[in-house]
Write a structure and sequence with these properties.
alpha+beta; 7-stranded mixed sheet; 5-stranded mixed sheet; 13 helices
Amino acid sequence: MLAALAGCDRRPDDVPVVVSAIGFGVPRLPMRPGDALPLPAALFTASTAQGLVRFDASGQVEPGLAERWIVIDEGRSYIFRLADAEWANGDRVTAREVVAGLKRAIANPRNPLRPHLTAIDEVVEMTPLVIEVRLSRPRPDLLPLFAQPELAIPGPRGGGSGPFRIERAGNAPRLRPGYDPTAADDAPEAPDAAEFVQIHAERPAYAILRFRERQSDYVTGGTFADWPLVDAADVSPPNRRLDPARGLFGLSVARRQGFLAAADRREAVAMAIDRNALTRDFAPDWTPAETVLPDQLDSVTQPARAPWLAFDLDARRAAAQVRVTEWRAANGGTAPELTIAMPAGPGASRLAARLTADLASIGILARRVAPGTRADLRLVDLIAPYDSARWYLRMACQPCAQPIADTLERARESGNLIERSRLLAEADVALVQDVAFIPLAQPLRWSLVALRLREWRANARAWHPLNHLRRETN
């Protein structure tokens, strides 16, 4: 057994960690704070220009630029005390610089988090080491948003505060551990080679091949679309890791026309899908989903459930087939046809085959199309950046029926947490009744991890900081 495990991890333990981040573009800092970041740039940014807080190996919020904080006034005020930190050029980090960088990131119209930051009224410097974020309404769930790489703070001259420094830029940048104020005075100035990290931005097949050929230690950012490549490459099971990711993976109703014009027929589509078989096609521990919300979160009640979930698959399909038959009778006997937009990749082909077969079982003809084309249904595959029912409902309901959109807007603007929770529960029930979104599973996120990366932890964020792969690093 020991020999078999050793075969999974044959790179030496005293060399830099080589990381393949699945995605496009050169790993580098964004042109402007707050810009949307593909995974390679997100990893690079979070590693070299942390925010006020950041995520640890388990996906929990830990100190970043701020060493501690308090939340007061029912979540209307966040006060951060900055740590003893340095920018890449050696200058001490000041509250004025952090405030300026945070304001730019929040105001950036290209920031994907901007719709979830509308409660922020002001970011102010209270002292050279203390800043306050003032909100117009309570937001006790704001800290995970501050930990996102889009809210990382680059330094005044383009270099961040770490936890890594850029040793060599370029297409595959190399990073070294940065300034650590907690290190002992007699700590060696030169870090070990094993503490360095090199990041490659790669297509899935190249990333998997590099790992299999023992030219890298870590592949991150894998999704359902490329999971079959891992099996095809015969990567050893001890190196394969799945995250218990939380977010949305399902079909959004993009066009309410033809067969999908009525809620009961949209429901027929949802009833036809065998979620357990769908997830088993990929991995035995991929979790199916039957509700939009994964749990209660900040709603006042448990997630809304469709009434048909009380019946077994055969009964569901029988009822769905009746609705298809009625529609055909009213439309000259023509079978309904639906298009489903989803990304490229062998996993997407596998998913499309399953959905096509499931819908054919009730008499619907389904066809897969590319993501940017006109479609009846669109696959949504997103990780939740923070734990609020509003994020799930807002992202699932696109396009959203006006009454539901109005309820979500009232929840956003509410200054009362109890009222906000009630409105979110109301929107959840309405969205399920409207069948604006068809849940399939929790998002599938996978990594390939060398055994020497002992601190890697699966987590619900599916986010793995590079300074938490081997040991805790500043």
